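Q: I have 803 residues here and want to know how they pack in 3D. Can you give me a structure?
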Amino acid sequence: MLRLGTLLATGGLAAMVPAGIAGAATRSDGNQVTKTYRGHSSPGFDQWAYIDFDVPPGVNRISVTSSFEPFVLVPGVMSNVLDIGIFGPSGFRGWSGGARRDFTLSAADATPGYVPGPIGAGKWSVALGPIVYKASGMDWQVGVTLDYGPPLQPVPYDTLPDSIRGRADDWYRGDLHLHSVHSDGARTVDRMVADARESQLDFIATSDHNTSSTGVSWHGNVPTDLLVINAEEVTTRHGHWLAVGLPQGEWVDWRYAPGDPGALDGHVQRVHSLGGLVVAAHPMTPGPGSFWEFGLDHVDAMEVWNGPWTLDDAANVAVWHAALSLGKRIPGLGNSDAHATTDTIGLPHNVVHASALSATAILAALRQGRSYAAESAAVTVDLTASGAGRTAGPGEELPLGLFDPVDVTASVSGAPDTVVTLYTEWGTMASTAVGAGGSGRLHWRGWGKASLFARAEVRRLRPGSSTLDQMVALTNPVWFYGADRPPYAVERRVLFQSTRRADGTWTSMRPLPGTDVDPTFAGVQVSAAGMPDGTVQILGLKPDNSLWTATLNGSALSRPWQRLDGPGRQQDFTAREAAVTALPDGTSQLLATGMDGTLYHQQRRTDGTLTGFRSVPGFTPNSTWGATKISLAGMPDGSAHVLAYHTDGAMYACMRRKDGSWTAWTRPAGFGGAPTFAGPALAVAGLPDGSSQVVAVGLDGCVYHQVRRPDGRWDGFAPLAGVDSSRMGASSTDIAGMPDGSAQVVVVGRDGNVWHNIRKDDFSWTGFARIAGPSGIDPFPAGQVRITALADGTARVLGISAA
């Protein structure tokens, strides 16, 4: 901040002028006194300046004008701005940022963004927030006018009620992020209320930038059918946050940075003491000042969907999912952030299960995560998880024992031509298409503590303004453990390996070496391919969804971990799923699904170079394929068999021929005459005779197997027998085709441990046996398991530890 200069007193307007600011001669006009100040600000974004002036007794109005040197660096994104506001002897009196250049205030009235009230005698300050992109700086000018006269009479404001009568325990819809004429919005509060009614909302929050004036502007227009919650969007230069549920007239400061000791924490504690909710707003928006730099430790919730769906929102959801996977219980919210009258209030909004339509009950439910976000009032999502004799919904706990099954159901209505997808921290578990009628239901069965949580998304597979799809709804997670029993940490999800020798004995489980900065590799997914030279190529997804590859030779890495670029050599590529397979000529093929579900393919040459990811063809010419789970197998003739759950939830298969062309996608029949097969896991392996074998986990949580003959015919799915039951329950599975014509299968069983089985060349099974952990005796608990065959008849098992 600029230091204060010499006290000047001229013509009844005495000013404390900061260094670098010059005050021109005062102009008097009867009962009005005006003084003009000129200044210059250096280039910068996070800077503040203040013009202090004394107001003598008898002044009943203050008016301020401003102007500044225009400059545009990036149209619509980076240009010179002079934010303005004012503080009086008693503190904050208004802020309009860059939305206005002039304002006035008195006891009887004030420009929107400014708080009416008595003009007290004493020191006042015009607060300036210069945002300067011009290298030579920015000149600016501010005029301050004092009007003398008898005191004006204040107009009292109406108190917003805490609740709407007669509304008990139910689901309520509301938008917490709205802007009016009191900041940079175009709506009056009356228009805001009318448009919220039109969107069929039950509650709204008025959250204008850095001002409390909205809360004191209600005069005879408080609605009786719509709950209005007072709020503020605290717009710092290092990220924005919503203070929701503030008492009317309360104001929260914004002039601090992440490095300032206790700055954010102190304001958060104050908001909490007032009963309010703290929400990180549009945290991944890359615009200057919008990107969230304060971390998520002090906020109650995170705005993961802000206005019409864009790439920013996709990034928000990815960061949020990563936080959930770390066990951080931070609710995700969706708000419209509507400014213009053409912005739709309620696109999106939150659907909250609260005990009453009251500010207290709504904020309590949002803090717990008892909500989901939807694009309109037509969309309804019912997510429930049942297990151990209990049922829970979003934001609730369903503590499970090691052997307890959990059934998760997502029912959707009002969402025609969409796809419903279920996620856990291990990624996509199941998906199903919703037809033109708009209603659909997805069911998935998991086991014990194989997952920490489950949440659902509903997407429309049509391009948005900057994305390949559009979000329609997303829920907060159902948690599968008690808050007093922390989950296993993601840092403990270490990648382990073990080898099954040709004689049937096993080496002990050992962690794989990590990257240069990590002793071991921690991740959420892994895929492996046994190469003809005896090495194993590995693909791994870290918790941030970055995609890495390495080559394992014995127990050491012959090629260290290297992060893979995405399509078009995108260096920050993130993926949901990845798979790799080896071909007889020493090359390998890789598949990866982008965060939007698009499936990509590339080859790795024998010298280790990569051809680059390219999208896989879809059903029709020039279309692309979308997938939630993928697997591929190298075949003896140099082709590759690709197996995937499509975004419609069904299993499909195709072949990539040796010449690089693709066959059409076909859909294998399900078990017991069902037209399709769907589930959370699948795997395919090629056999020396040109056949391939498939294992998959169905929506009932059980493992199924079938053979695809060399001529393309399928034998049909059959369940695999469990250790002490007719069917083997599992959350993850993989299969490897061995040189002798047998196939080896691994699963993460319903007890959370890794199990192994062999389908011999006479089609009989040895039965499942448990694989030991690092001790050589204790079982190995895992979240995901993979197996690959080597030419010498050994098999390499890789598992991601879950304990």
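Q: Anything worth noting?
A: DSSP finds four helices and 55 strands in the chain. The chain has three domains: 4-148, 378-486, 490-801.
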